[in-house]
Amino acid sequence: MSSSKLLRGTFILTLGIMMSRILGLVYVFPFYQLVGKQGGALYAYGYVPYQIFISLATAGVPLAVSKFVSKYNALGEYRTGYRLFRSGLLLMTITGIVSCMVLYTIAPWIAPFVIEEQTKGNSIADVVTVIRAVSFALIIVPVMSLIRGFFQGHESMGPTALSQVVEQLVRIIFLLVGCYIVLRMLEGSLVTAISVATFAAFVGALGGLVVLIWYWWKRKAYLNDLLAQDRGQLHPPLKEMYKELIMYAAPFVFVGLATPLYQLIDQFTFNRAMASIGLEKISEEAYSIFNVWGQKLVIIPVTLATSFGLTLIPTITKAYVAGDRKSLRKYLNQTFQVVMFLTLPAVVGMALLAEPVYAAFYSYDPLGEQVLRWYAPAAILFALFSVTAAVLQGINQQRFTVISLTLGLFVKLSLNTFLITKFATVGAVLATTFGYFVSVLFNLSIIKKYTNYRYNFVIRRTVLISIFTTIMSICVAIVLYVCEWLFDYQGGRMESMVVVVISAIVGAGVYFFMSERTGLLASLFGNRFAFLQRKKRRRGYRDQPSSH
After folding, report:
1. Phi–psi pair at 79, nearest 5 degrees
2. Containing domain of residue 13, as a range?
3. Least crowded by CB within 10 Å, which of 53, 488, 500, 522?
4. Distance between CA atoms of residues 227 and 333, nearest Å
């Protein structure tokens, strides 16, 4: 593949992923206005088990199939990749149907672990209904993942990108319209509305699959031409091909499982721990604030930071394989700096503005403010876990990702109930933070061991970033105080939105101004911000005295 085509394909795929993630964040806010805290909790009860099943079935499949097909296409053995694809379609169809049947069947077994009958709010029967509604998506998603990987292996990123965006759009439209019709027009029950919301995963998957089928028929003649050029010298058995595929996919399965498994621990322990300290009346509301609404806000800076940081992973892999230690150190420095540069000010700002941020996106809620303030710093660890896991993949030490995730989950499981009984909802936040901290620390130590990488330079840059963040925070605090005085701030949604926008503009302006003036911006992002340097040079030329 030419470098220009590679860059174009990577850009298209990254753009599709970013748009899909943004859509996945934006819909939450009108969804909250429709279903509230109790509906959010019920939605999570159904969606978390589904995410675990879907991660086991598909996490890493597109990339693994892409890597496999690309490898054999490069050898001129086009029929080998096609054989895997055809048998994989059958296997993924069977896997999807079996997964759906298993999740549908065990729903009554899962529900009592999630909620007790005496809990005020949703019932065990409600949880069973919602889990069963979302299980149908398992029939389609595995097949869709395989087709995406096949197209990517043929250097075609457009089908994956467009299908992801269409899948998300169809899901969100069906979810919001369906909930609105059930709750506002038909005056139906909350359980029915949430069942529609979780069933939207199936409808969205259908939309994504239609896009991929359309691309298949459009590219069929081209794919047939490739098969006609097949060299026919390699005939690996299916068993060996699937073994190779699993080796490619396994590390991504564990990374994809991280968030759902942490949420599953909360799902099985949170309500009981809250009930044990006499807070069963608010446990479901608190659970939805922590594990649904707050989590969606915290994940915003993570998405931005990892999108920039992960683009450097291919260069890290190339430098490691070539034994170029100097370049490897340079790229690792840049990757970690980018993550800290983007995440640290974002999470500090979010913690500082916790009250207006939560009120702007949802509604004024003292518990929501408290949870968001404690939860925001964990975003740094979420971003670092994703990036360090990718680095381990790049230096071919992905097996340690499994160990680090297991250690983190053990810490979370060990501390969760104890910390909840001591600090209520914030205890669950702290247990998650400690779990990810252990995982990240382990990953960083493994990276140091196998690359002989030293973190001194990154630590010094992090101190500089922290100084900028502190100055930014002081400015934001002043703006927040002035805004609350000027607007007679009472926690209203529109008032909160104005406060957040003004504070964010001032904070970002101060932070980027200091970064640009010190050269940190150019050091991290190169010519992406070259226009700032050009403007500064032009001002410098105009300021120079005339030679006459």
Report:
1. -70, -25
2. 1-236
3. 488
4. 44
Q: How many helices (H) and strands (E) does the chain have?
A: 22, 0
Question: Which residue in 352, 354, 373 sits closest to 364, CA to CA?
Answer: 354
Residues of the chain with pLDDT > 90: what percent? 45
CB 405 within 8 A of CB 257: yes
Q: What share of the chain is helix, strand, coil (3-state, %, to 5)?
A: 85, 0, 15
In the numeric block, which tokens belong to residue 474? 């002081």
Residue 68 near residue 153, CB atoms below 8 Å? yes
Sign of CA dihedral 498, 499, 500, 506: positive
- Tens digit of each residue's pLDDT (9 = 90 or more) over 210-262: 999 999 898 888 888 888 887 877 778 878 777 777 776 776 777 778 888 99
Calpha distance 253→61 (Å, rounded): 9
Exposure string of 358-377, with b = 16+ CB inside 10 Å and e = fewer, is bbbbbbbbebbbbbbbbbbb
pTM: 0.82
Return mean pLDDT, the chain: 85
Q: Which helix (H) or strand (E) holds 201?
A: helix 190-228
* CB count in 10 Å sphere of residue 270: 26
d(C-alpha 157, C-alpha 152), whole Å:
5
Number of domains the chain is built from: 1
Give the contacts of 182 (CB within 8 A, at least 6 positions apart): 188, 189, 192, 193, 196
Whole-number Å distance between alpha carbons of 394 and 450: 12
Residue 23 pLDDT grade (very low, low, confident, very high; cuts 50, 70, 90): confident
b/e per residue 207-222 (b: at least 16 CB within 10 A): bbbebbeebeeeeeee
**Residue 120 covered by a domain:** yes
Q: 3-state SS string over 452-512?
A: CCCCHHHHHHHHHHHHHHHHHHHHHHHHHHHHHHHCCCCCCHHHHHHHHHHHHHHHHHHHH
- Would you state the structure tokens that stand for residue 176, as one six-digit string? 């919001």
**E strand or H helix at 513, and its extent?**
helix 493-517
Q: What's 545's DSSP letter?
A: P
At 165 the three-state DSSP class reads helix
Q: Is 110 within the bounds of a domain?
A: yes
Q: What is the DSSP letter of 138?
A: G
**Distance, CA of 22 to CA of 170 (rounded, Å):** 14
User: Residue 101, Cα to own-chain centre: how many angstroms?
Assistant: 27
Give domain status of residue 49, yes or no: yes
**Token pair for 219:** 């590219």
As a whole number of angstroms, the distance between CA 469 and CA 139 comes to: 47
Q: How far apart are CA 177 and CA 107, in angstroms?
A: 26
Rounded to the nearest angstrom, the gap between the alpha carbon of residue 450 and the centroid of all alpha carbons in its chain is 27
Q: Please check whether residue 25 lies inside any domain of the structure.
A: yes
Q: Is the pLDDT of residue 546 over 50?
A: no
Radius of gyration of the chain (CA): 25
Other beta carbons within 10 Å of 400: 20
Q: How many CA atoms lie less than 13 Å away from 421 in the CB half-sphere?
A: 10
